[in-house]
Structure formats: C-alpha cells, structure tokens
Amino acid sequence: MTEGWPHESSPFHKGEQEIQDRVGVRDRAEKLARRVVRDHMPDQHRGFYETLPFLLLGSTDQTGRPWASVVAGPEGFISSPNPRCLKIQAAPLPGDPLAEALASGTPVGVLGIDPATRRRNRMTGEIGKVERQGSEIESFEIDVTQAFGNCPKFIQTRDIRFSDEKNSVNKTATVEKGTVLDAQAQDLIATADTFFIATTFKDETPSQADGSDVSHRGGKPGFVKIENNRSFLFPDFVGNNHFNTLGNIQLNSKAGLLFIDFASGDLLYLTGHAEIIWEGTELSSFEGAQRLVRFNLDEMVRSRRALPLQISFGEYSPFLAKTGTWN
Question: What phi and psi, each to the nearest 5 degrees, are found at residue 128?
C-alpha cells in the first residue's frame, strides 16, 4: 500500500485548516501530514492495537451529541483482519452513552494508547459490521478512513492490565445521570492529570478529512479549573499541529469528555459544548498554554466501578515541567 496520504484532497478539513492558518503552521502541517497520515493502518499500528487491554472511542449518540468512551478486554480482544479494519471483541461498558448508537455507518474516532511506554496511535473511520447475541453486542468492526501516530507528550506513565476480577464486578456497575457536576465529579475533574475529549464534524460535501475524533489531554493535577457546577477550563498545549480537536470545535462546538478514576474504576462521561479562548488574562497566567478551552456541560453520566482494569501510576510526563496549574 502507498505510504503517506494518497489522495489529492487535503487530509485536513476546513476547520483544521482555519486553526492552522491562524497560528501560522498551515503549510508545514500539510506537508508533514501528507507524509505521515495514511488511509490504512501500517503493520506496526495493527500489531500495537492488538496488544492493548483498552481502547478509547469517540462518536455521537442518536441526537448527534459526542461522547468519549472506553472499551476493554484481555490481550487480543482487538484484532486487525486487514490494514483497513480493526475488530473489537467487546461490548460497551455499563452506562456507556454510545451503546445504543453503535451501528454500521456511525463515524468514530479511535485512540490506542499504552501509558507505560507513552506510545499512541490515532484513527478515524466508521463502524462496520456489528455482531450481536440477541440484543447484546459481542463484537464490532471499525473501517479506517485515516490513521496516524502521535507524539508521547503529556502522557503520564501507568501500568494497565485487564482484570478478570474487576470484569466480574463491572457487570453490577451503578449508573447515575445529571445535568450538573456534583461535588464528587468536580473533585475528580479538578485533580485529574489525564482526560479524553471527543469531537466531530461532517461537511455537507463528504470528505475523508471529516468524521469523529477522540484525543488525549494531560497535565499536572490541577490543570483543569472548575468554574461552576456546569463549566470548567483547561489549557491547550503545543502539539502536532493537526488541530483535529480544535478544528472540529471551530465548526461544531459540541464535545464529549471522559474522566477516569484510576483507583476506583469509576467513569465520568460528559457531553456539552466547547469554545476556544485565544486571549485574556487567564490564558497569559497559565504557563505553557497556547490557548484555553471552556467546556459547558449538558449532561453527565457516571458509571461506578465499570472499568475492568488494574491500574498503577508510574511517573508524570517530563514535558509537564514547562507547564503550570491554576493554583
């Protein structure tokens, strides 16, 4: 298969291009992406995904709201039958808002990340074949539109393994919903060093640069600032200049975030709207921030003890030394 981007059209949609123009990296980003973005997974990526005990997904529910999700399983639960397909032999976790929307043709973003080595690969595509046993999902496939690697910046190391014991517990997970952030949710967000954000954009004219995306965000504990029970701020640090997340927000403010309580296995799913803040005293006071993003909540879903993973912390990213906190 051809290495790099084989299509005449850009690997970026107009929202991503607008952000690249604004920060002065448009030409550089285009040239690099045409070398590193593919319309298939190279063998190295395929093998990497197959070793993971969990996978991040970003997609939209039946009303068009984005959510970031996680699926998990024993090693080998992810496989790649061919370079343009990823097969997931797992059902959505209890309480996952995307469970009902998991259907063929649904745009989906994929993030494979190994915190122990800080390696991560990204993908966008569509849900392909979905296999069910009665009403329960047994497996589903993702057909690749774009695939590319990401740098290790801002990833905290953690040893993460699938746990049969926790998997049996997660089937009894309790699910709570609300439209405001309660004290427990605010505490998890305000002390987090990692979260995941899902965004989406689809143009009126179909393009291979459109679709859903899910991305990692990392910082020192305290890098997310609670403003009130429905709003918080977080910094956007220097990245790969693709601006997949911000490019989507530029054209579609809807966003979904996932915060994980790594100790308890609780999952906090949020969906709402995001806005990019380009200037102001708050931006200038946060060391290392290129921009800020404000998230406004529409709905919260908390699934307690849902994540069947055994997780132990390693160390913070060395790139955090040049970043601040709201404290």
Answer: -100, -125
221 φ/ψ angles, rounded to the nearest 5 degrees = -50, 125
Residue 118, both tokens: 């800080």
The CA-based angle 75-77-79, given to 5 degrees, is 105
Give the mean pLDDT of 67-77. 96
* DSSP 8-state secondary structure symbol assigned to residue 100: G
Give me the residue spans of the domains in the chain.
14-322
At the top level of CATH, which class does the domain 14-322 belong to?
Answer: mainly beta
Per-residue pLDDT for 206 more than 80? Answer: no
- C-alpha distances out from residue 316 to 154, 162, 225, 326, Å: 8, 22, 19, 17
pTM: 0.97
Please count the other Cβ atoms lying within 10 Å of the Cβ belonging to residue 74. Answer: 14
User: SS3 of 71, please?
Assistant: strand
Q: Which of 234, 233, 235, 229 is nearest to 184 (CA)?
A: 229
Q: Give dist(CA 304, CA 228) in Å, integer.
A: 23
